[in-house]
Amino acid sequence: MIHLTNVTKEFDGKRKVRALDRVDLHIAKGEMVSLVGPSGSGKSTLLNLIGTLDKPTSGEIVLDGQKLSGLADDDLTRVRRDKIGFIFQFFNLLPSLSCLENVALPLHLRGWKRAKARDRASELLDLVGLGKRMDHLPDELSGGERQRVAIARALSVYPPILLADEPTGNLDTHTGAEVLSLVRDIHSRLGATVLMVTHDRSVAASCSRTITLRDGCVVGDGTA
Hints:
The protein is α/β, with parallel strands linked by helices and 224 residues long.
């Protein structure tokens, strides 16, 4: 499902920084994998490359059988839109839109008719336990509820790949555990391939496999 071969990413500034150094990584369809490592180890860079938000300096990335190298920006946008769902630490919900409207927005951008998009958004909010909060604005929700809305939005097109960047990092311990349980439940129901960046050992331990990065290199890859 996710294959990286000899992937390197360098950033140019006053001096060249190598954020990832010849990374080889293979994640099978349906796996739930955590990505750990100290700050500056390359975790977010790796997630951005897999999510097509950035391009590697060298090496090859293949998602769901499709090579990313050589794809035009419009084609990369389509890959991101159709195959990848993102869950962010800080939710990134639009404050002026209701829960239903936030979840339906990606579908409207894909050209779905209003009624169909609202039906799918309603279905997903029910799935994450917010069926009674659909008309509420983000500011009227708790942190955990906002993260649930963000998860529902990420799942709007039932993507085969779900990328999560510290999904529990902005939540208290109890709420974080609830959100993690929800992600695991959705993974089980929908069979999505999940890659989750985390600093939380308990979150990492809940995944079937943990990949450790340090100084831009994979230094550990173990199963639970």
